[in-house]
């Protein structure tokens, strides 16, 4: 590793620690020439996860896009940003664990709704109304009935 201060090619590792739930390693290094200390991060390069949209187009998975949708659905609700970030991390982890290079957007939407339902019913209905494109009030009422039935069980 080249020193960012003097550009010497020799450094030694002083300390290594896992970070980001074990997906990265933080290394504290020291230059053998100028003794400058600096930090590097090492992580496995994950292959891109491709999302196949309803109309057949493809785009790279973007957890920030999911987070934006969750933030809108949870506006003025007692849900923390940390909870929403955990949902996005959980969804990405589950998708990567499937080992598929392409996933349908429907699958992602269902995973997000399932996680959101456990946190806040109102936010769930808001998200579902946009995601499932509720056409009229009857579809909305049916979804609410479904939620009430599941709560009774």
UniProtKB/TrEMBL annotation:
Keywords: ATP-binding, DNA-binding, Metal-binding, Nucleotide-binding, Repressor, Transcription, Transcription regulation, Zinc, Zinc-finger. The keyword Flavoprotein does not apply. Pfam families: ATP-cone, Zn_ribbon_NrdR. Residues 49-139 form the ATP-cone domain. InterPro entries: ATP-cone_dom, NrdR-like_N, RNR_NrdR-like. PROSITE patterns: ATP_CONE (PS51161). A zinc finger (unnamed) spans 3-34. Its cofactor is Zn(2+). Binds 1 zinc ion. PANTHER family: TRANSCRIPTIONAL REPRESSOR NRDR. Negatively regulates transcription of bacterial ribonucleotide reductase nrd genes and operons by binding to NrdR-boxes. Belongs to the NrdR family. This is Transcriptional repressor NrdR. It comes from Bacillus bruguierae.
């Amino acid at each position: 590793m080249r020193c960012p201060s003097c550009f010497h090619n020799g450094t030694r590792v002083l300390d290594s620690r896992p970070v980001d739930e074990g997906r990265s390693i933080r290394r504290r290094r020291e230059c053998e020439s100028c003794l400058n200390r600096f930090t590097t991060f090492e992580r496995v390069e994950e292959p891109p996860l491709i999302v196949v949209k309803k109309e057949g187009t493809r785009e790279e998975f973007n957890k920030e896009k999911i987070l934006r949708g969750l933030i809108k659905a949870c506006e003025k609700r007692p849900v923390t940003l940390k909870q929403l970030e955990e949902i996005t991390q959980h969804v990405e982890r589950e998708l990567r664990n499937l080992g598929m290079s392409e996933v349908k957007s429907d699958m992602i939407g269902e995973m997000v709704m399932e996680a959101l339902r456990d946190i806040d019913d109102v936010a769930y209905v808001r998200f579902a109304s946009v995601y499932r494109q509720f056409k009229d009030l009857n579809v909305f009422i049916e979804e609410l009935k479904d939620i009430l039935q599941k709560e009774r069980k």
